[in-house]
Amino acid sequence: MGIIIAKILIPFLIIVNLIPLLIWVERKGSAYIQDRRGPNRASFFGIRLGGLLHALADVIKLITKEDIIPSQVNKPFFILAPFITLTIACVTYAVIPFADPLIIDGKLFPLQAANLNVGILYILSMSSLGVFGVMLAGWSSNNKYALLGGLRSSAQMFSYEISMGLSLMSVVMIGGSLELTTIINQQSHFPWQWNFLKQPLACLLFIVATFAETNRNPFDLPEGESEIVAGYHTEYSSMKFAMFFMAEYAHIIIASALISCLFFGGWQFPFLSTHFLREQAGEGIFILLLAHAFLFVLIGIFLLSKFSKGKYGDKRDYEVLVIGVPFTLLGLGLGFTALFIGTGDYGVMGRQIFAALMQFGALMTKILFFCWLFIWVRWTLPRFRYDQLMHLGWKVMIPLSLANIFITGVVLLFL
Amino acid sequence: MPALKQELESETMLLNVGPSHPAMHGALRTQMELDGERIVGSASEIGYLHRCFEKHSECSTYQQIIPYTDRLNYLSALMNNVGYCMAVEKLLKIEAPDRAIIIRVIMCELSRIMDHFVCVGTNLVDIGALTNFWFFFNIRERIYNLIEMVTGARLTYSYTRIGGVARDLYPAFAIDCRIVLKEVEQAVKDVLGLIQHNRILVERTVDVGVVTKEQAIEWGFTGPCLRASGYDHDLRKAEPYYFYDQFDFDIPIAENGDSYDRIMVRMEEVRQSTRIVLQALEKLPSGLIMTDAALVSLPPKEEVYGSIEGLMNHFKLIMHGILPPKGEIYSATEAANGELGFYIVSQGGASPYRIKVRPPCFPIFAVFDKMIKGLMVADAIAILGGLNVVVGELDR
Amino acid sequence: MHHPYLPVLLIIVLGGLFAGVFLLASSLIGPKKGTKSKLSPYECGLKPVGNARERLDVKFSLVAMLFILFDIETVFLFPWAVLYRDFIKSGLGLFMAIEMGIFLFILAVGLVYVWRKKALDWR
Fold first, then answer.
1. CB nearest to A158's CB, from C4, C63, C114
2. Shortest CA distance to B124 belongs to which of B188, B203, B205?
3. What is the pTM of this model?
């Protein structure tokens, strides 16, 4: 039982903690895209972490704000809507595998919260539940903008749900399974065997459909703030509003995880197989420690070199020292540890854990890249119009995904 | 047998867009009747920013009206200053010195660039492309700094005087200005790179809100909106004032008269304005920045203290103000939005008997309801941004 | 060995707790000073005209119906897709391919029908 809880809680905490990080990346990233500075004011004893503290400050601010429930709303559903949205957003990660299964006493020990044999169906069903929160929010607000936003989003999510399912079909045909672990294993550790090269069209369709499912630009019509004010969450304030916001980012993380699992090899470390990672764990740890030591010292020295007394004239002067010194020391410590232990042997378990950690790192890198893609696209493209959105969904994406299934079937038959 | 194909009836929804709405820049209001997302009909209401400019002017002296004109089109306040002062100067039959006029031209064209930046930037924000807005606003900030160095203000300049301008350019102005203009060109290039061939933007704006040439003329469009519809009319070329006939620049014309054309015409006008400013910097003569006509300009201090004529002139101007002869005048300039006209009736007193402003966006916004009928809400927003309706000048 | 869906249940409970804590915290901590105008619906600063819950365009329901039709057919495709490779191995590939080709064809015909009936046009 303890293992189950650990397996549930650890990825949950990772995702929940990624949300504020992602909000920071979005704000800071958009700022650099737009030639601005972005958040850099909130500080805690002079420590600002490049604006990262704003995420914390925002949460505190939003919790202590007045929670307005307007008089015209349908109260139970009004409260239920953000609850559903956030819950559903936090549930989908269950079937995402984080590394190759460990082998303990000859038994497979999968590193995912719930090892379901219908993983893809679970994801599809859970992500389609997300529309309920939005619809309920739009309807229960009893506000015209909210209603229009709810209608738009339900139509949009319905339409793209179909092409999402259909584009996954070809991946399932190649993999021959609905289990994500099998699909990832079958993609192997060579990047040219990953599904985005075998199924480029399906990959593209799936990415577009996930953009639409997460209500992100260019598909952010449900909230399209210049047209219908704030869409379905017009009437929400305080933490309820923040919950929609958090759910959006949780959806982005899950969608990125899915894109990387289904089309970009999931936890597969490019060019290094699980077997290789396990065999070469000693050397691996040595190199990894040295690399981190080098990186940390580099960051530390860079920060220390930025120190100049009197730049701000208060505690903020010492921020680079407070962060830079531990970084340098940590880096040096890691370096000496690496030199001290050398390429030792870590036993069967240690090797497996090392391989799992490496693969987890590879998966996280991919996830963060796709999260960045979501942000990048949002700050680059304009928004669709409602009829153009429907046109793209029904008249372009569905025929294309049907054709893709057909072609995949024929090719598989003669291969 | 009755027709089997019966239309399913649905009720229309009345939706207020504005006055407090993210896409209604300023305080416009349009009440839309929606069938689903389609606009069946709409009714626009203006007056949320009415400040009695015209009535106010009737009890102010001619000089005192200049600060009020700042508040008309606050995106390019200098152009209103210039337009007003030009009208009064015509009424007085005096002329500003050449240097003042070239300075006015430079300021007007810089204002035109800023105005177009705000218009296109916000229009793109309404369509959902937020980044372009910042690309423009960073450079607009640079122009603001430049103008602040000259005029001492950032938004409400009150820079012109009847018969000249308030301050001379600072010595390094030409150098700073050339640097800023380079950045303007770069910003236009950056944004065009993002939007010109962007499929989503093209689909959102091409053939949306089409105004034909005939309609544009009939509805009294002026400025970029008229030229986007394909009619070549620019007061700077048609009735040249302020040496505009001596500058080498083109008037961009588009054909379709849709939202896309309105954006592109504005972008091209920014480039042409850059050209004008560069030529004006070359042309800039030395000399006075204020006319020495006794009717409007205070005499130098030595004369005030040294001669009775100077003292009396000073006394009369301070105590009675500028006294134009009896008569009326209509004078129009090509502002960023179109024809900005000032109609002034004088009965010989120190304040005008009547002032009427012809704001360029009033005729344009008047037909907004006709333009959006049958379109979707998103289209209406995309069109409104491109019309550049500035409420300060619309409501006055 | 535990039931494979037990973790899913636990995750739902966990997610619910997570969301519930936020709801509770903000309703406990935040001030409560509702005034009449603060609690009135947002309508761009004006008094709302008419009701938000009127009968709407049938098109919105049409999308929902089409979605159900197509999504169910998507679900029908999944078992076939999973087993397709096994069928090819056991020599029944061509039969399955043709069969599913017919299914896809019917699906496409449905799409074309809807398309021609202009149910996908929003003009």
1. C63
2. B205
3. 0.86
